User: Fold this.
Amino acid sequence: MKSRTRVAPSPTGDPHVGTAYMALFSYCYAKKTGGEFILRIEDTDQERSTSASEAKILESLRWLGLDWDEGPDVEGPHGPYRQSERSDIYGGYAEALIEKGHAFRCFCTRERLDEVRAAQMKAGETTRYDGHCLGLSEDEVALKMAAGESSVVRMKVPEEGVCVVKDVLRGDIEIAWSQIDMQVLLKADGLPTYHLAVVVDDHLMEVTDIIRGEEWINSAPKHMLLFDYFGWDMPRLIHMPLLRNPDKSKLSKRKNPTSIGYYRDMGFLPEALLNYLGMLGWSMPDGEEKFTLQNMIDNFDIERISLGAPVFDVEKLKWLNGRWLRETLSEDDFADRLSEWAYNRDNLKRIIPLVKERVDVFTELAPMITFFAEGMPELTEDDFKIKKQEPDDVKKTLQFILWRFEVHQDWRAESLNELLGKLAEAMDIKIRDLLAPLFIAISGKPVSPPLFDSMAVLGSDICRARIRHALDVLGGVSKKQSKRLEKEYRELD
Ligand code: GLU
Assistant:
């Protein structure tokens, strides 16, 4: 049977290697059966979703070669593929559930919900909606609606018994209904939550197999119940183990670079990154560690997915990348790839205006521009000895800049200039003092081409990685320090 799979990222930050991991397995599963792979953008969280993040997700999945058959930019028979463009679809489904008695309107205020939650926490109970509005009659609801009271739609959930989640890899997982919340399906603004949108869309898009991270297992009962309420066939569920940091905690950017763009800009090959992600959850029947996407599709067997906690180890990825470079690329290919990566005309044309005024002969150029193509500059703690700045202040400045950069999307020089100007103002320090440690972190040298323009060429992933690297060189930021700094940072605005 042909399967239709999807990857459904939320465009709320940098494209995560975890998204690529889910996309890869979904892609292989669909292709193995001659089916289709869909890209759906789950942007129901309007406050956090951005089009810049969506563009980066599309670009990085394409860079990896995981081309989708249907998606926001290629369309298809089940579009649109961006949930924000489907917002008028979901309300009717929520209404239908109310009519069938599977959902209800809830008028509880935030304050009331907070109180209930606090009381449940105090009593050591699972925090969940207490069913306050469950008993409202139709007339009462109509009156409240007519009076313009704000409301959401919640799903009903059985009070007793267990839900058996059938997972292709994990078998039957029993979850007591008492642990499952009466989930909000439609928010007060009429927009769906993830849970309603994912079910409606997986059904309308005829998804047969849902491959996603294990953090969604606890949501599966809600989704199964909704499929049941609607009378639709439930797709098969495959919950993949989460990628981990070497210390086994959930892969996080505090401990590892997680953005796909970082690996591209650091000079990893897309084939090697895909191969590595494949290797983390799956193995070739002959045990060969180096394999192509096509090898993986040809040999794909869901049963071979391993449930062990996969550790994302950058050193191992580097080793694999080395094998790809040495064993697979001819010298011609090597040259092509190198030029595609950074040594190309477009890139040089961005760099030349920054250095042109300072050179008389080409040989003077090389040392000036190495930092555009080197990964992390070689730094020592001594490099950060800045006049009148205590080591802790240097760390603080770098950490604050990093936090600003983590949410800043516009990576043009003027915008960076403005952002940091405002930060210096908020911190009540001179811009010169704010930029001094950043300059060292980014360029690694006492002199370099203009900072903001250089950062615009380097891109956000490399700049942030260099700041993190600088913080590491300075001994890192402990959890305790980070807590203190976070507090101070929050008070800036
Ligand atoms: N939008 C969800 C996410 O960002 C997708 C979860 C799913 O695949 O159902 O992870």
